């Protein structure tokens, strides 16, 4: 097992280690793990997004996406800033925190955009988009049937994160997607959009 001093920087940085660290040459913790890597309701990947104004973002995600709040940790030493809030959206969890420039944690608005787009699979993307717009989002691409068998579009939430709202409407093979994509690009003309 790792020396306690080795784990301390991770604890100070806010990382919660679930399992003891194993030095090189020792048995892998994968064979000794007493718990699953991602215990329910977590999945292997949990997005952790940073925003300016986490309380307002939480309220937006509740109204727009029907999120429920699982936990909220605020740091009184940081003026009550949210350092971690977890929301359940559908069958997944997303983690949210206020910006913390001292830890190089900045939201999309501070960065001039976001390098990622989150996909939210829903029953009715039109209805979710309408709720999101009512709650303050803007439409980037309107909801429409897509060549790859989904009805989807893209919104930007009031905090700068972009979301694809998507529902499967047709099972399409990869080969058929390739044919449809080529046809779609031809229809777009020289501008490509």
UniProtKB/TrEMBL annotation:
Q: Which Pfam families match?
A: Glyoxalase
Which intervals hold domain VOC? Answer: 41-168
Q: What is this protein called?
A: VOC domain-containing protein
- Enumerate the SUPFAM superfamilies for this protein: Glyoxalase/Bleomycin resistance protein/Dihydroxybiphenyl dioxygenase
Please list which residues make up the signal peptide. none
Entries under PANTHER family matching the protein: BNAUNNG04460D PROTEIN-RELATED, VOC DOMAIN-CONTAINING PROTEIN
